[in-house]
Amino acid sequence: MITQLTPNLAVDRIEPSAEFFSKVGFEVTVQVPEDDHMGFAILVNGTQQIMFQTRTSIKDDCPEIEDASTGSPVLIFITVPDVKAVAQALNGYDVAMDWRETFYGSTEIGFREPGGHIVTFAQFPAEEA
């Protein structure tokens, strides 16, 4: 029934979020301009993708869901083969959740990406480098 699930995250500006995600292998593959910046973008890493849309673009594009762009930040959970390499690549970004070992067996660290959303990167023992 479902072939793909892609979050579309509301942000004030896409470029800082795109730079954050580029550090872990995402590339902007689609972008729609809005004045002097991106209003919408699709970022892809292999078979994974994430969309970003500015709050003003959401308001212009679909005013009936404008309130969807003003809620709490989205929490994103990403499984990676080498969480230490990810943390190294994101050095300097805001750590939202310190290193931890979970009851379900992963080693995790969480960052607040520039758009305000929390991104947790997790490595499970079978995937250790």
UniProtKB/TrEMBL annotation:
The keyword Kinase does not apply. GO terms for molecular function: lyase activity. InterPro entries: Glyas_Bleomycin-R_OHBP_Dase, Glyas_Fos-R_dOase_dom, VOC_core. Keywords: Lyase. Residues 1-124 form the VOC domain. Pfam families: Glyoxalase (PF00903). It comes from the Bacteria. The keyword Lyase applies. This is Predicted lactoylglutathione lyase. It comes from Kordiimonas lacus.
